[in-house]
Amino acid sequence: MFSKRSIRSQFLIQLIVASAALLIIFSSILYLYIQQNIYDEKRDEMQQFAQNIIASQSLSEATGNDSDALLGVTVELVHYDSDSFEQRLFEDDRDKHSYLILLYPFESAQKTYLKVTKDVSTMKRLLAKIQRSIYIINAIGFLLIVLYAIALSKMLSIPIRQLSRRLSNMNEQLMRPITVNELPEEFEPLGETINRLLSRIQNFVKYQKELFIGAAHELKTPLAVIKLKNQVTLIKKRTPEEYIKAIKKTNDTVDEMNKIVADILNIGRQEGAQLETPEHLDIINILRRKAEDFTLLATSEKKYLNTDLQPEHYEATIQLTLLNQILQNFLQNALKFTPEGHTVKFISRKQGDDLLIEIIDEGCGIDETVDLFAPFKRLGNKSGVGLGLFLAKSAADAIGAEIGLKNRTDGTDGTVATLRLRAKLCCPLPIKHKTL
Description:
Mean pLDDT: 79
Strand order of the largest sheet: 6-8-9-11-10
Largest sheet: 5 strands, mixed
CATH topology of the largest domain: Heat Shock Protein 90
Radius of gyration: 46 Å
CATH architecture of the largest domain: 2-Layer Sandwich
Number of helices: 10
Structural class: alpha+beta
Helix content: 40-55%
């Protein structure tokens, strides 16, 4: 129960120690207060006795009807040689009795004092009983506090145990979000965080299933084609040229399979890239280098790549491999679907503290009702496996960015691919310019 790693145990120990310290301090103050009040009362009585004697008053008249005040009181005149002529109060224990002695100045010339002695043994016994009573009450109170602390800690841990039971009963087939409204207010942020995590796990499981099913389907089809072509080739004898032609077609199908396998391996590499140490980089410089590379590729395909990269600098701490994967996929798709003689725009600009990157093509557009970021979803009628956008979405999620695809709305056919690097995750920092 009292494990060092247990929050409940730490709470109990701290509460018990604090309660014990509070009870000790409170009981000590209470006892000292009672003791001081009783001693002050006795001292005032003895002072009054001394003053009445000096004023030649009767002690019985001075105490009124309180005859108990005279019990155990003796008065005598003593000589006490001292440098200062003032009253003194002290306590003396002898013969198993306690006496409170007051030396009250009588005649300063002769340095004589009235010595008023009062037996306070009964008062001392009363104080001892009060002290024991306080200890007993504190012990009972301390026990009640411990029981209350145990009950309170158990009650506070109920929401955590409920969350643990719900999470322990979940599996990839049954993932239900936690009802945040049923949790205490202090646990609402935790519930929302768990729900976001569950949503990401559900998407991951969904994509993994689609990936495995799609990969099996994509690999099964070319294998069936290869087998069928080989069977047709073996039906009858052919010329060497016909065999060569048939083998080339088979190799083309094998190349398609290799591309599928390569894209699936890229998913594994991407998961490794997510563990890559983030680097502090100038994003605009990375975009410029990408623009240079794809300008050459666009020129070779008789297409144009126009760039407008703003601001001059934008620094961020980011995983370069994942960022390159997103940019490369978007630029490749834009050039793939843009016809010869047409233009692809590569634009970046700041929106607030975020950096918005847009790649705008003049292709055939997309069907916005389809989840194109799911695995094996193809764009248009171009060749491909359909894993590029899935990899781009996974990379964006890993670096905390946001990507999107939509059709152009400026009257021209084509697609707008967007990548938003959020400032709260990418940490833009000011550039220190060198002085000339």
